[in-house]
Amino acid sequence: MTLDKILEEINKADSIVILTHENPDGDAIGSSLAMYNILKAYGKNPDIIIPEFSKIFNFLPGISEIKKESSVKEYDLAISLDCPTIKRLNGFANYFENAKSKVVIDHHGTNTMFGDLNYVNPDAPACAQILIVMFEYFGFEITKDIATCIITGIITDTGGFAYSGVTAETFEFAASLLKRGVNVSDVYKRVLQTTTKPCFELTRIALNRLEFLENGKISFTYITEEDMQKANAETGDHEGIVTIGRNIEGVEVSVFARQIDEGWRLSLRSNDYVNVSDVCIMFGGGGHPKAAGATLTGSINEVKDKILAQIKRYIRN
Fold it and tell me: If you average pLDDT over every residue of the chain, what do you get?
């Protein structure tokens, strides 16, 4: 069984590195720190490498142990969490590629199975939920600190238990974490209801640019690198902007574009029937049926035309 083999690799490894995708959200950060903390408790001394992340996650146990880089050239074991492709590991994929053994743990349906061992469950609404099953199977104790990291991942990737991927099992898992002393309401407030001032400013800019297309079924907005600089924005300060369009009556697909060095990073969200992962796959991206992303090049108008042409194929009249 894959889980037995993963535990065998953990037991054999003297050096372990934990990695996740670029621009990490709460599930990526929460899952990574849950894995870090549980391996520490198990007697291992792993490295966790995440070059940039939002300061709203500074409350999580173990956050101060995160490294921006490592001098280790070849780890015995690399564990990738919440990452569908090796490309999303971005500039730190070398730690994964150079490792003697590679493990992928994820919940994206578009996962390319890029590890030696792949434990992927697309039915799970969050990668963090998969970890509960793993840890219990391994016989690892889920402490309050580890449970806090896990519930952060679940809350952020389910929109506070609001998305369609949530099942009765998700609430059962959440209840088990509550019993370990996790303050769910505090975590919810920190990751979903607290907004930084730069995020507020970027949201204001994005709202002023918001367009409605295809009879109001598609919303589109964007922010530039100049906007980020003027707002003194940091990593993660753009999070949540894409949901604004989706929450407007009549909108089926919300598109938010953010200018980056490589072009434009697009985030797509849908409400009912459009599989935005299928749309993003056309541009080398992917994700989930109702939440996906891709990177495109060109001017903002060119990028808008490209993405809209694909979305229109799925919009019902």
Answer: 94
**Given this chain, do its domains 2-193 and 197-312 carry the same CATH topology?**
no
- Token look-up 């520490």 returns 40
SS3 266: strand
Q: Looking at residues 264-281, what average pLDDT do you find?
A: 95
What gap in Å lies between CA 264 and CA 111, rounded to an integer? 22
Nearest to 28 by CA among 110, 105, 96, 100: 105
**Any idea which of 85-99, 103-117, 143-157, 241-255 has the lowest mean pLDDT?**
85-99
Strands 47-48 and 77-81: unpaired
pLDDT (0 to 100) of residue 91:
73
2-193: which CATH topology? inorganic pyrophosphatase (n-terminal core) (3.90.1640)
Q: Among 61, 55, 59, which Cα is nearest to 35's?
A: 61
Rounded Cα gap, residues 292 and 307, in angstroms: 12
Range in 20-24, 199-203, 248-252 the model is least confident about:
20-24
Q: For residue 213, what are the β-bridge partners? A: 218
Burial track 205-228 (b if 16+ CB lie within 10 A, e otherwise): bbeeebeebeeebbbbbbbeeebb
pTM of this structure: 0.88
How is domain 197-312 classified at the architecture level of CATH?
Roll (3.10)
Sheet of 253-260: strands edge to edge?
A: 211-213, 218-223, 253-260, 263-270, 291-296, 286-288
